[in-house]
Amino acid sequence: MRQTGTLKFFNHDRGFGFITPADGGKDIFVHITAFERSGVAVPAEGASLSYIAEEDRRGRGLQAAQIELA
Length: 70
Hints:
Blueprint: E1 2-11, E2 16-21, E3 28-31, H1 32-38, E4 48-55, E5 62-69
Antiparallel strand pairs: 1-2, 1-4, 2-3, 4-5
């Protein structure tokens, strides 16, 4: 299910950040590869995004995929 949120933080040197969901709840991890796979450049912090939250392959929780600018 597609969700919306705001890019809270992104560390370009380390290649990851977090999205704050619009409906509240725990922040969602986002990796640079999710932006690359979606064909979207990493926006400035505070940008509105839509994404699919999916389980991390390593079982560490949710991460963002299929990112679009909202």
